[in-house]
């Protein structure tokens, strides 16, 4: 019987990291092609300018993938990470890069995507808008409660028995392993305190955490929302079994420990995954929503009701700055009919409504449209209507004949961008201006390449919504070609 040969992995010594690439990976250019270097548990995080030893882990036709085995010389672009979980947790992957350098990489990513993928001419691009708050900027976090604790190498080789129950974040590329978090710098108080209290309760009352492999257990996820503008806090517990007494004891404990919780809810999810968009949410105490407020410049702040399944920008302060850019570029005089595509709960639509003649919001999630209608009523806005349905099927000639042909379109699609049929329909609708807000400049660039038939990119504003990550939001103004 022939023995299988075990090929020694290829190693490269004293390699200089050139720059960053898509999805936050670092990039090395060699005569044999590019190498993408990704950090993760067990491998050091690299930065442009580092001198490293690499180990190739994947060989593709056009590129290779590698991890750093050791860092020989550190880049001057580096910063000291502020979180003890950096390098193992999947969040805030760019803590080790100076913030001004992060902004430069994000700005260049926008330029590269728009010019290389979209092949569009950039007549003007504004400097990326930095975030004033770079820690505790999120208003929503979701923690996994699982039987599958991530252990360090020392813990793995220890003779001590370690309890596998944990409340924390998934380790990158490991669906079944969760990292226990002592302190998270993403969400303000009382987020850390609530998470730690649930963890303490889990062990004190010997509750079973959900096993992501065997699908056995009780506690599944903890979702915390905080509203800085109103000080309200929402907690939603997701469990895998209908056990009213056990659940009531936990929820009462949270109410006693945290009287600032204004909305306490639970979800009984017996599926094999933690997604809850199709599950019923039960309000246990307080209101079934929290409220966020945002100044739209009218002297009367907008109030948005945010339910457990509502979408609301997770960085509210930067969302306000982004919306101001979108409204400025819409060029509203009070006479325009505005279409707000992928309107969600109507945040952008209502933000511009008082400066427009009429706003028509379109969204494929029916529950979000219900929230948008409630938000319009709460704010006394009567010139906005909201419609639910598949965008490419709803946005037709007949729809525009009924509701009017738009003067301005604001579109803020999900990461996948707009369906080509929707993009083609915008060309037929021929508004004077299109303001395209995107959380994925690669798909935005693809869509701009189609719209380039009739529109030119007149201005670009990158916005840093998520400091210490590779993610960047981008606003593009498209004006009709003469």
Short description:
With 482 residues, this protein is an alpha/beta fold.
Mean pLDDT: 94
Rg calculated over all Cα atoms: 24 Å
Count the DSSP helices. Answer: 11
Which percent range describes the beta-strand content?
25-35%
* N-to-C span: 75 Å
Secondary-structure content class: alpha/beta
How many β-strand runs? 22
Strand order of the largest sheet: 9-8-7-10-11-12-13
Helix fraction bin: 10-25%
Low-confidence stretches: none
Q: What is this structure's SSE topology?
A:
Elements: E1 11-16, E2 19-20, E3 26-30, E4 33-37, E5 51-59, E6 63-73, H1 99-117, E7 140-147, H2 153-156, E8 165-171, E9 174-180, H3 191-204, E10 219-227, E11 232-239, H4 244-257, E12 261-268, E13 282-286, E14 290-294, E15 302-306, H5 316-330, E16 337-341, H6 347-353, E17 358-363, H7 366-378, E18 384-388, H8 391-394, H9 397-403, E19 408-411, H10 420-429, E20 433-438, H11 441-451, E21 455-463, E22 473-480
Parallel strand pairs: 4-6, 11-12, 16-17, 16-19, 17-18, 19-20
Antiparallel strand pairs: 1-5, 2-3, 3-4, 5-6, 7-8, 7-10, 8-9, 10-11, 12-13, 14-15, 20-22, 21-22
Structure in words:
- The chain is of the alpha/beta class and 482 residues long.
- It has helices at 99-117, 153-156, 191-204, 244-257, 316-330, 347-353, 366-378, 391-394, 397-403, 420-429, 441-451; strands at residues 11-16, 19-20, 26-30, 33-37, 51-59, 63-73, 140-147, 165-171, 174-180, 219-227, 232-239, 261-268, 282-286, 290-294, 302-306, 337-341, 358-363, 384-388, 408-411, 433-438, 455-463, 473-480.
- The strands form four sheets. The protein has a seven-stranded mixed sheet with strand order 9-8-7-10-11-12-13. A seven-stranded mixed sheet has the order 18-17-16-19-20-22-21, sandwiched between helices. Strands 1-5-6-4-3-2 form a six-stranded mixed sheet, with no helix packed on it.
- The N and C termini lie far apart (75 Å).
- The model has no long low-confidence stretch (mean pLDDT 94).
């Amino acid at each position: 019987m022939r023995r299988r040969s075990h090929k020694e992995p290829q190693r490269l010594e004293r390699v200089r990291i050139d720059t960053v690439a898509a999805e936050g990976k670092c990039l090395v250019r060699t005569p044999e092609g590019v190498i993408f270097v990704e950090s993760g548990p067990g491998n050091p995080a690299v930065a442009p300018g580092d001198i490293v030893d690499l180990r190739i882990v994947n060989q593709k036709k056009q590129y290779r993938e590698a991890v750093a085995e050791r860092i020989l010389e550190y880049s001057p672009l580096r910063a000291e990470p502020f979180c003890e979980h950096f390098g193992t947790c999947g969040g805030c992957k760019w803590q080790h890069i100076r913030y001004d350098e992060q902004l430069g990489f994000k700005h260049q990513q926008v330029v590269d995507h728009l010019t290389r993928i979209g092949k569009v001419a950039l007549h003007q691009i504004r400097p990326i808008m930095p975030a004033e708050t770079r820690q505790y900027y999120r208003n929503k976090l979701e923690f996994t409660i699982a039987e599958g604790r991530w252990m360090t190498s020392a813990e793995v080789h220890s003779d001590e028995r370690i309890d596998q129950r944990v409340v924390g974040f998934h380790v990158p590329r490991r669906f079944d392993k969760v990292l226990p978090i002592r302190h998270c710098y993403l969400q303000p108080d009382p987020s850390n305190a609530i998470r730690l209290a649930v963890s303490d309760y889990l062990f004190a009352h010997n509750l079973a955490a959900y096993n992501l492999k065997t699908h056995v257990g009780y506690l599944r996820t903890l979702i915390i929302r905080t509203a800085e503008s109103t000080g309200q806090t929402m907690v939603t517990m997701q469990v895998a079994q209908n056990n009213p007494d056990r659940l009531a004891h936990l929820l009462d404990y949270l109410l006693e420990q945290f009287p600032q919780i204004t909305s306490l809810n639970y979800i009984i999810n017996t599926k094999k995954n933690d997604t809850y968009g199709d599950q019923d949410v039960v309000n246990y105490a307080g209101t079934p929503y929290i409220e966020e407020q945002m100044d739209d410049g009218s002297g009367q702040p907008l109030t948005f009701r945010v339910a457990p399944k509502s979408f609301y920008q997770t960085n509210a302060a930067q969302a306000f700055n982004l919306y101001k850019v979108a409204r400025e570029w819409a060029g509203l005089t009070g006479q325009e009919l505005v279409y707000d595509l992928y309107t969600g709960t109507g945040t952008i639509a209502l933000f511009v409504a008082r400066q427009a003649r009429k706003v028509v919001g379109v969204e494929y999630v029916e529950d979000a449209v219900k929230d948008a209608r409630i938000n319009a009523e709460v704010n006394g806005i009567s010139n906005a209507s909201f419609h639910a349905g598949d965008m490419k099927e709803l946005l037709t000639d007949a729809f525009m004949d009924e509701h009017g042909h738009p003067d301005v379109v604001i579109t803020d699609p999900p990461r996948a961008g707009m369906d080509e049929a929707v993009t083609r329909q915008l060309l037929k609708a021929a508004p004077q201006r299109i303001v395209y807000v995107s959380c994925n400049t690669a798909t935005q660039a693809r869509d701009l390449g189609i719209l380039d038939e009739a529109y030119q990119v007149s201005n670009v504003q990158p916005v840093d919504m998520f400091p210490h990550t590779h993610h960047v939001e981008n606003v593009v103004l498209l004006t009709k070609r003469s």
